[in-house]
Amino acid sequence: MTKTISKPAWSQAIEQTGKEFDRTPLEILSGSLPDGLRGTLYRNGPARLQRGNRRVGHWFDGDGAILSVQFNESGAIAQYRFVQTEGYQEEEAAGTLLYGNYGTTAPGAFWHRWTKSVKNVANTSVLALNDRLLALWEAGKPHVLDLETLATRGIENIPIPTYSAHPKRDAHTGEIFNFGIEFGRKTHLNLLVSNEAGKILRQKSHPIDRVSLIHDFVLAGDYLVFFVPPIEIPLFSILFGLTNFSDAAQWNPQGATEIWVFDRHLDFISRSQAEPWFQWHFANGYTDENGNIIVDVVKYPDFTTNQRLKEIATGETQTAAEGELWRVKLDPKSAKMLECDRRFDRSCEFPSVPPLEVGRNARFTYVSMHRQGADTTRELYRAIGSYDAQTGTLHEIDCGDRCYPTEPIIAPDASNAEKHWLLTVVYNGNHNRSEVWVLDGNHLEREPVCCLALPEIIPLGFHGTWKGR
């Protein structure tokens, strides 16, 4: 007799479609809200993976929905809204999926797929500006949302066709750095810098001779650094609708990871090659006392992580893909890698540092990670870690059985510059609900400072941001 293996608890926070809700005061389940926690948490993620009898082919392809949680003197108030993209509205009216995407091939005959553009799902991250919220998706332009109501206003007017989901904000200058990849007969890397209001200050375009998957970059002092993995992508097949990006992308184990270095003026400085690896996310970067570039990055030995992320959309995984946090030292003049050291030996992702330390030497890096001894094939992250670069130690909070945290978002304390909080949205499979946990960033191993119940399940998502008052 074949033994039936039930799906893991986290599947409940993936397979069902997110349900919108209006501004709702949140019930405190335990603890109390800190007096210095004043501002708004915004989170983005794919919240609809199916319409009618059609389901997307990859976790990256679900329609984006934004959760906001506002913290003030009277408590916490949350709301949840889908980004009203043109594709979302068209499919809502049709009652079925109409578009292809990163890992989904558009339905219909070849000539239909050829003429149908991919859908901007606006599902990856958010950027909070002075007067608007941008919902980001790296293969298109940002969608503009109202900071208070989350109503979709339209498309951000930027002079490049794509805007990455990982802008880097220099809190000391107010500058926001970002990039976009422009595919076509010639592929270009577009770099731009805007001020804190979103006004573009400068931009430059660099033709590149290598088509790959570039999801993130790092601001390191006076430099912008890109790691370009050895992934081969037949653009012809994708552009003509014969396949999708995810299925077409092939890992080349004999290839090299390229390292590109630019300066803050967006000028090209240097380029080199290193052994092959893949990365989704950088933690941070800075320039040391000798003028070398230091970069912290979550490295994978290959592109197997893409298969795992594809499987997550089904509610169960059969593929393990373990990324680890590494520190890379570079010579900026040559882009040559001088050193490469692993920070700790636990599988992790979604690294971040306090906002004031982006581009500078940060002592603490926060990550989502697997529990000690976890089944990394079937389980998702169930712990949050804090790596202390000064002491070389890892602190963590184990979220418990059937509890799955999302990326920790750092919220500086409004009244104490030495203190900050970590905010994470947790799916609690024991009670089949989503919760907001407030953790002490200075003492991560302690119990949550406060746990709040959300009125609906928030499907597991990707990235977010904090906007202080």
The proportion of residues forming helix, as a percent range, comes to under 10%
User: Count of DSSP E strands?
Assistant: 35
Overall outline: globular
Rg from C-alpha positions?
21 Å
Name the features.
469 residues, Methylamine Dehydrogenase, Chain H, six-stranded antiparallel sheet, 35 strands
Walkthrough of the structure:
By secondary structure, the protein is mainly beta. The chain has a single domain (9-468), classed as Methylamine Dehydrogenase, Chain H. The strands form nine sheets. Strands 2, 30, 31, 32, 33 and 34 form a six-stranded antiparallel beta sheet that branches. The longest helix has 9 residues, at 86-94. It is globular. It starts with 11 loop residues before the first helix and ends with a strand. 46% of the residues are buried.
Secondary structure: elements and pairs:
Blueprint: H1 12-15, E1 21-25, E2 27-31, E3 39-48, E4 50-51, E5 54-55, E6 63-72, E7 75-82, H2 86-94, H3 110-115, E8 125-128, E9 133-136, E10 143-145, E11 152-155, E12 168-169, E13 176-182, E14 187-194, E15 200-208, E16 218-220, E17 223-228, E18 231-232, H4 235-239, H5 245-248, E19 250-251, E20 257-263, E21 268-274, E22 282-287, E23 293-299, H6 304-312, E24 324-330, E25 337-342, E26 348-352, E27 364-369, E28 383-388, E29 393-398, E30 403-405, E31 409-412, E32 420-428, E33 433-440, E34 450-453, E35 464-468
Antiparallel strand pairs: 1-7, 2-34, 3-6, 3-35, 4-5, 6-7, 8-9, 9-10, 10-11, 12-13, 13-14, 14-15, 16-17, 17-20, 18-19, 20-21, 22-23, 23-24, 24-25, 26-27, 27-28, 28-29, 30-32, 31-32, 32-33, 33-34
